[in-house]
Input
Amino acid sequence: MGGHHHHIDPEAGDARVFWAVVINLLLTIAQIIGGVISGSLALIADAIHNLSDAIALAIAIFARKIARKPADGKMTFGYGRAEIVAALVNYTTLIVIAIYLIYEGIMRFFTPEGVDGWIVVIVAGIALVIDFVTAGLTYAMSKDSANMRAAFLHNVADALGSIAVIIAGTLIILFDWKIVDPIVTLMIAGYILWLSFAEIGPVIRMLMLATPEDIDVDKVLAAMNDINGVSGVHHLHVWQMQEHEAALDAHILIREGDWGMADAIKANVRRVVRDAFGIDHTTLELECSNHPCEESKIIGHPCREPHKHTHEHGHDH
Output
């Protein structure tokens, strides 16, 4: 998952990232003050865009610290989803702010306000310099980290936002084109909305326990059914524990006469789903062909078990 939900590798220079966050937060405050004093909504919109990046980075650092906590009695799956929850909060907030900026921008078309172009240009100019510095900090790390590449691309987008605001301020100074300010505001707010909607989808999918996008359940089923000694698979679930960790649980029906090889069959199933689909976390329940589940569904819902049921659990991490 790219975009605003930045993942930072532990070795990717925490101090650098920390300073990038601090600088961006200070910049946001300066831009908002500048926007209020100059009367420029575009400058405030650019500030929100910068803030969204700083918050995303801060959340990633903070959530990663939580995510490292080991599993315990209260959280048996561990704390790895802290980042996903944080990302959901981040995007939802951004969508609300962007909608508000669009509303304010549209209002300004009907009642244009005076904008002090010089303040806009100076503050946006400082923002542009800081965007380049932050991009420099993240670029060095982006070569070997996909997460930092996402952060770097966002800094480039921030720089483009600042350039748009500088152009708007310049047009206001030269020609007194007040209409440019709400136009740039709508462009930046539209970009924030587009980005947030693109990124919130995968986050919601993960929280809804959806099958990972790169895994085809039909292919997983076919691969499991192909294994020697397996006569059927049902009650299959595939989901994402965390962003890079897929999990599977299923009932495996062992072919008649092959119960003696049950452990080997189970190990084979595990190996196949791990090697072919990258699923490391599997929980398999084995069923003897003489005592299968009644009313079993291939995907989802546990089946009703007959009273005499031979099964065993296998857990793998």
